[in-house]
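User: My advisor asked me to double-check a structure prediction for DUF397 domain-containing protein before group meeting. I don't want to rely on an old file, so could you generate it fresh from this sequence?
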Amino acid sequence: MKTIPNLAGVAWRKSSYSDGGEDNCVEISEGFPGVVPVRDSKNPTGGVLVFPAAAWSAFIGGVTADRLR
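Assistant: Sure, here is a fresh prediction for DUF397 domain-containing protein from the sequence you gave:
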């Protein structure tokens, strides 16, 4: 099991697939070995999901290949 990283003060990046709206996409934080923290941009002080990096890569690969419809 991975340790949840300390997320205080980290930089967040919005999805490049956002439609330009400020409050309708996910944000990720990079630079954590082995994990990818993800949060809802509508609730930046709310909960954060932390995915194993391999699972996040597989998810992004599926989205990019349009296999998740």
